[in-house]
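Field reference: sequence -> structure
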Amino acid sequence: MPARLQIHLTSSESQELVKLSHNQNFPERTRKRAQVLRLSAKGWSVNKIASWMNCAPNTVRNTIQRWILKGYEGLGDAPRSGRKPTWTEEDIEYLEICCDLHPRTYNSKQLSEVLKKQRQVKLSPERIRKILKKRAENGSGQKRVQECTQSQRKRKLKKQI
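Structure field:
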C-alpha cells in the first residue's frame, strides 16, 4: 500500500490559507486549492477530500504535489497558452486622442492605417472596431473623456509623436 499523501502546515501557513480561502478577490480555483490543503493538513485522506470537494482524487493529489514543490506559487493557475496581444492599452488611447484632436472623423480602416504608421502596430479594422466597441460598453472611454481636458490630450499626443 502506498504512503498516505498528507502535508503539514505551520500555524502561519494555515492562517494564510484560511484568509486566502475566504477572500473573494481570488479566483475560485485558488480558494478551492487552499481548502484542499487545509483539509489535508487536518489529516483527511485524498479520497475523503475529493468526495467533500466534489472533484477527482487525482485533482487533490495534483494540488498537494504542487504545494510540496512550489508552495504558495503552486496555488495559482498556470499561464494559459495562446498568442499574446499585439496591442497595448496605450495604442488604443493614442487612437482616442487622435480622434479627439482632429476635427475629421475616422473609419476603422483609417484608424488601422494610423496605428500601423504611427505606432507600428498592425490591427485589422474589424479588431479595432471590436476593441473600441467593448471599451464603450465598459464605460472606460467615457471615463477617460471626463478625466482629461483637451489641453492634457494635446500634451499627451505631442509627447507620443
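Note: Confidence is low (pLDDT under 50) at residues 140-149.
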